[in-house]
UniProtKB/TrEMBL annotation:
It comes from the Bacteria. Pfam families: DUF624 (PF04854). The chain crosses the membrane at residues 26-55, 83-103, 115-135, 147-178, 184-206. This is DUF624 domain-containing protein. Keywords: Membrane, Transmembrane, Transmembrane helix.
Length: 209
């Protein structure tokens, strides 16, 4: 009995124990999330931050263990051009769609109602398009046009995953709009670990065979 207890304690404090491996992975995701937030703060560097985050999470998915800071900064230094290009187009679509919607938000004519729907559709589709585009850019040495075309196809081909992503986003928005406290809670979680955590789960689902 005593030997069994000793064995159990040794197993519990073994760094290879699944519990400790999970804790280490959660810590890595948290660090990557914070690095992403800090890197993306100037807004113009959002693409670099997003590319580095996706690439680092992909390495975590493949290897199970990475040096978070070194891996993230390495991608930020070596792949900043790809990230800047993707991020520039990503932000441009967001600003144009939301900006145009804001300009016509109080106009009630049928043509403007249709235009509002188009703006919302462009915004939603661009969010889904670039969700697939960044992982493809990390894994494929292709032109931006080829990556976006491939990403657009994946939005439809992986329809079940796409719909799940939309559902999660809708739930998060509804929770955020529930009250001032829930808004603060959702934003706090996304800023600390939630964003990278959800993105990591997306990468796992995307590569699931």
């Amino acid at each position: 009995m005593h030997k069994q207890v000793q064995t159990a304690w040794k197993s519990l404090f073994d760094v290879e124990h699944p519990v400790w491996q999970l804790a280490e992975k959660v810590w890595t995701v948290l660090v990557l999330n914070l690095l992403f937030v800090l890197t993306a703060l100037p807004i113009v560097t959002f693409g670099i931050a997003q590319f580095s985050l996706v690439a680092s999470l992909n390495q975590l998915r493949l290897k199970g263990k990475i040096a978070a800071v070194q891996t993230f900064m390495s991608y930020a230094k070596t792949k900043w051009k790809q990230g800047l290009l993707l991020g520039g187009m990503d932000l441009a679509l967001v600003f144009f769609s939301l900006g145009d919607f804001y300009l016509v938000r109080d106009m009630q004519a049928p043509v403007f109602e249709v235009f509002k729907v188009i703006c919302v559709a462009v915004f939603v589709f661009s969010r889904l398009l670039f969700l697939y585009a960044y992982p493809l850019a990390v894994e494929m040495n292709r032109s931006l046009k080829e990556i976006l075309v491939h990403a657009g196809l994946l939005v439809g081909v992986r329809l079940s995953l796409t719909l799940l992503v939309v559902l999660v986003q809708v739930v998060l928005v509804l929770l955020a709009l529930w009250s001032g406290f829930s808004l603060l809670l959702v934003l706090s979680l996304l800023a600390t670990i939630g964003y990278a955590g959800l993105l990591y789960l997306f990468l796992l689902a995307l590569h699931k065979k």
